[in-house]
Write a structure and sequence with these properties.
Blueprint (H helix, E strand, L loop, with lengths): L4 H5 L2 H9 L3 H7 L6 H9 L9 E3 L10 E5 L15 H7 L2 H18 L3 E6 L19 H17 L3 E7 L12 E3 L2 H8 L1 H8 L4 E4 L3 E2 L2 E2 L4 H11 L5 E3 L9 H7 L13 H8 L5 H19 L14 H14 L1 E5 L12 E5 L24 H8 L4 E5 L4 H9 L3 E7 L14 H4 L5 H7 L24 H10 L6 E6 L15 E4 L7 H9 L29 E3 L5 H7 L17 E11 L2 E10 L5 E10 L10 E11 L4 E9 L5 E3 L4 E3 L4 E7 L7 E7 L1
Parallel strand pairs: 2-3, 3-4, 4-6, 5-7, 5-16, 6-9, 11-12, 11-13, 13-14, 14-15
Antiparallel strand pairs: 1-2, 7-8, 10-15, 17-18, 18-21, 19-20, 19-24, 22-23, 24-25
Helix pairs in contact: 2-13, 3-13, 5-14, 6-7, 6-14, 7-9, 10-11, 14-20, 15-20, 16-19
Length: 704
């Protein structure tokens, strides 16, 4: 990656000289988005979807400063008809940072071909509860894992000299209340759970940050001096620029500017003339404007001048990128249950039933700002038909249970495709109420001009959080329970952006495969996995509990929400609650053994190693996971946490020595009294294996 922090800082003197030649108006113009809400609505009315072309901000032709050109994500470049990769949650299930970096490079190339220079799609928010509608855009429930995967995407995108923008800073894990909710958390929860993965991505070189809509500790995140100035630009020494989330990311000119907001996106309502006036009145110092301008100019020049490559439109949705999307879809497939029926035999499956309305739908995720518009999407039904050209493949949506039973009885294999779609979860759009804007808010005029809603790429009424249940729809449960027992050669394929409860119906089918939202080649990957061309190697990036009540409670429509220290697998383990399926779990069509474990300390790293052998008859992928335990801690800490992972591929009988290293820095806790990260000198439990469950782990100890 050429555009490292060190490289970017080498442009500081030049950026300062350019900014010195600018008028106040020119400097403020750099901080200004150029696309109004009305422009977006008009574009969509004319047949061009949200962010069909990059959205510009700033620029100065007189002094040779390019515009910032925003391109959304993260399942691909939103512009035009780009390659649609699996959603981030699916890619999180691969635990494959090399793959994620390659996806980042592909996205970066397509953005360059579209004429963009910033990718606003490194979404690394952590779901406090899996019901969060946009959690499909992040990598899972574990902060360390999110930090590693997000950092890989940052490196890949910036390898193509496209600015990687991480979002939404911070505590943005609710959808219906995102414009109004005030999130609170204690200092340890803030630093150890919700900010640590942002810090990882900053350390990886991310050159831009997008603020969040919500409030934190009573302040809008886009107005938060604490988050933007003190933590991000101060403690973390961030050299890049901060942009607001679109339209409602800035609510007050003076507060936002003084708090460290550098660019208002994607329109200009509170900056522009209002910001110039605030400077002239002494409410915002010109030094603050200069700082923002230098950050913007420095970053844009560094990335623009890093190469002189030309990217042809032919790179957009090219074969190489589509093949990569298929590889990602294949590697994310997570086998949650298998009573020996999978893989189905191609030769014996002369008649295959595909049941459930999602079986014949190209389901790639929500309809919000992350929506990609690929040139095609392979449905599960299409994938199965293509793989089995000589078999009869029967599709039925399952509305009539008796008819579904008859189809199942006469089939050699029964595949239920069930789960969610854009109506059920995702970025939420609805009319904007006075409780959000207030009667005198200048944003009201923009909203009224746009027809009374803030769309931001989402169709009104779509998406939102899963407020009613984390389980399947009632009719899908009834279909599985009624028809599953009819034919033992039955498998459920789950489609969705996060954890789906399975306890109510898991015993009524022989196999369960989590497919997430698997992208444009998802149907191909599902078919190849079900029929054995692909051996599933994905791992759950979340815990699956027996009861929803085992998870943290969230009031999805509220102005106040507290985030506790524990969530996900760490919460269940701390409370002694056995999960239905542990974090990091995933079955394979082969088997693996772990032996010869060793644990130690090497300089500033804790090291865990073991031998892993493929003891089955099929080539397979495995994710070796390292956890560290804190049983001897003098403060409240989790029982254990993920602190490393490595993907391997083994042929039948092959054995490999695997070593995982964890920086000792990652074992520290944040002391709110000293405001410092501190290392406890004690014995730490260290584990290595293939899930977070103790029965899947080998354990040792190290002393620090």
């Amino acid at each position: 990656m050429k555009c490292t922090k060190e490289y970017r800082l080498s442009y500081t003197d030049r950026a300062k000289k350019i900014v010195e030649k600018m008028t106040l108006e020119e400097k403020v113009y750099l901080m200004s988005g150029k696309v109004s809400l009305k422009d977006l609505i008009n574009d969509e009315a004319n047949g061009n979807h949200y962010n069909y072309v990059p959205y510009p901000a700033g620029g100065n032709e007189r002094l040779g400063v390019p515009e910032m050109k925003f391109c959304d994500g993260p399942r691909g470049a939103v512009q035009g008809n780009s390659t649609c990769f699996p959603v981030s949650m699916a890619r999180g299930a691969t635990f494959d940072t090399d793959l994620e970096e390659r996806i980042g490079r592909a996205i970066g190339r397509e953005i360059r071909a579209h004429g963009g220079n910033l990718f606003g799609g490194v979404c690394i928010n952590l779901p406090y509860n899996p019901g969060w509608g946009r959690s499909q855009e992040t990598y899972g429930e574990e902060s360390f894992h999110i930090g590693q995967m997000g950092s890989a995407l940052v490196r890949g995108v910036q390898e193509e000299n496209v600015i990687a923008c991480i979002k939404h800073f911070a505590f943005n894990s609710m959808e219906r209340s995102r414009f109004k909710v005030n999130v609170t958390a204690d200092k340890r929860t803030e630093r150890e759970v919700y900010l640590s993965h942002f810090k990882d991505c900053i350390d990886a070189g991310a050159a831009s940050v997008m603020s969040a809509y919500n409030l934190y500790q009573g302040k809008h995140c886009g107005h938060s001096d604490y988050l933007l100035n003190k933590v991000l630009k101060g403690e973390w020494d961030f050299d890049g620029f901060v942009i607001s989330d679109f339209f409602l990311g800035v609510r007050d000119t003076v507060e936002a500017a003084n708090a460290g907001m550098d660019i208002e996106m994607c329109h200009t309502l509170y900056f522009g003339d209002k910001l110039i006036k605030a400077v002239k009145e002494g409410k915002v110092s010109e030094d603050r404007i200069n700082d923002a301008a230098i950050r913007i100019v420095r970053t844009l020049l560094a990335f623009t001048e890093a190469d002189d490559k030309e990217y042809s439109k032919d790179v957009i949705s090219c074969k190489e990128h589509i093949d990569l999307a298929l590889e990602a879809a294949e590697k994310c497939m997570t086998l949650m249950k298998n009573d020996g029926v999978l893989p189905f035999s191609k030769d014996k499956s002369k008649r295959v039933a595909v049941l459930g309305r999602l079986g014949n739908i190209g389901n790639i995720g929500d309809y919000g700002s992350s929506r990609v518009y690929p040139k095609y999407v392979v449905t599960p039904l299409e994938g199965i038909k293509k793989l089995l050209p000589d078999s009869e493949v029967v599709f039925y949506d399952g509305d009539d249970l008796e008819k579904a039973k008859e189809i199942a009885k006469s089939s050699d294999a029964v595949i239920f495709v069930v789960g969610y779609g854009p109506h059920d979860e995702g970025e939420y759009s609805d009319t904007i109420a006075d409780e959000i804007l207030g009667k005198d808010d200048p944003m009201l005029k923009s909203v009224e001009e746009a027809g009374g809603q803030i769309s931001v790429g989402s169709e009104t009424g779509y998406g939102g959080d899963r407020v009613k249940s984390l389980g399947l729809h009632k009719d899908e449960i009834e279909l599985i329970k009624a028809v599953g027992p009819i034919n033992k050669n039955s498998a459920v394929v789950l489609i969705g952006g996060n954890m789906i409860m399975i306890n109510e119906w898991k015993d009524d089918v022989s196999a369960i495969l989590m497919a997430y939202y698997p992208g444009m080649e998802g149907g191909t990957a599902i078919a190849k996995t079900l029929f054995g061309d692909v051996n599933p190697g994905g791992k759950l990036p979340f815990v699956v509990p027996y009861r929803e009540s085992d998870l943290p409670h969230v009031d999805w429509d509220t102005k106040e929400q507290h985030y506790g220290y524990y969530h996900g697998y760490a919460k269940l383990e701390k409370e002694g609650i056995e999960p239905l399926l542990p974090y990091g779990f995933g079955l394979s069509y082969t088997t693996f053994s772990f032996s010869n474990e060793k644990f130690g300390v090497d300089g500033d790293e804790v090291v865990a190693s073991c031998d892993v052998q493929n003891t089955g008859s099929m080539k397979g992928d495995e994710v070796v996971q390292m956890y560290v335990g804190f049983k001897n801690s003098s403060v409240d800490r989790p029982v254990k946490l993920l602190r490393g992972f490595k993907c391997i591929t083994l042929n039948p009988g092959e054995k490999m020595a695997v070593e995982i290293r964890c920086p000792i820095e990652k074992l520290k806790w944040f002391n709110p009294d000293t405001n410092e990260w501190e290392l406890e000198h004690m014995d730490y439990e260290v584990y290595i294996g293939n899930s977070s469950s103790n029965k899947d782990l080998l354990m040792g100890k190290v002393t620090l």
